[in-house]
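Bumping my old thread because nobody answered last time. Still need a sequence for this structure:
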């Protein structure tokens, strides 16, 4: 299946800022999730970001890939519709065990009231 399809990704800065300003937020040990309800039944759109504080480009890209895969696994188990989701990588994301990272995504979604 691959990663999150490109047409279901948030890419523009304005999209990220919209989710940040109007959405709900849940901080977990391995990530921060921002979720905004769109009010439709289309598949969820995902955005992934990691700041330069986390490390150089190699470290940031690895962190982003881990977030994408964790989100893909969670969305495959329980399809999410009608939301825009932004996952923000933290310094702890890169060293966190992958199973714990997947649990962080699940817990953050539950706390934001997404998909349940």
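Sorry it took so long. Here it is:
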């Amino acid at each position: 299946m691959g990663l999150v399809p490109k047409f279901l990704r948030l890419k523009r800065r304005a999209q990220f800022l919209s989710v940040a300003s109007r959405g709900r937020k849940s901080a977990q040990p391995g990530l921060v999730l921002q979720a905004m309800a769109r009010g439709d039944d289309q598949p969820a759109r995902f955005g992934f970001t990691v700041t330069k504080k986390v490390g150089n480009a190699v470290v940031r890209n690895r962190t982003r890939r881990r977030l994408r895969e964790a989100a893909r696994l969670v969305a495959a188990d329980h399809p999410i519709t009608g939301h825009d989701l932004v996952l923000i990588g933290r310094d702890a994301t890169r060293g966190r065990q992958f199973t714990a990272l997947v649990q962080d995504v699940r817990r953050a979604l539950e706390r934001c009231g997404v998909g349940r």
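Helices lie at 13-22, 57-77, 91-95, 98-111. Let me know if any region looks off to you.
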